[in-house]
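Support reply, case 0932

Customer input (verbatim):
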Amino acid sequence: MSRRSVLLTVAIVAVALLGGALWFANRPGESAAKAGDCITAPLKGGFKKVGCDASNAAFKVAAVLADGDSNGCDAYPNVLMSVVDKNRTKTLCLASAK
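Our regenerated output:
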């Protein structure tokens, strides 16, 4: 596989994960993730909360910030990505669950 193909594959996976994280951060309902919760990688457009020892746990929520400033996630070690909800009222700081 060429280097370009590998980079393209990595980019597609990263965009899919980010899209799923955005959906998860903006979904309604009281089952929104809290700090310490583990979630799956996006499957059919969404995440699911799972136990952190589950084989399909992909991310652990390091923190949920009460604002739309993703720079606040810099205070948490090992954060892979930050996701801000569409109203810029909440930020999820996601680390690897593994």
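We compared this against your earlier run and they match. Two observations from our side: Strands lie at 38-40, 49-50, 57-65, 79-84, 91-96. The helical segments are 3-26. Please reopen the case if you see a mismatch on your end.
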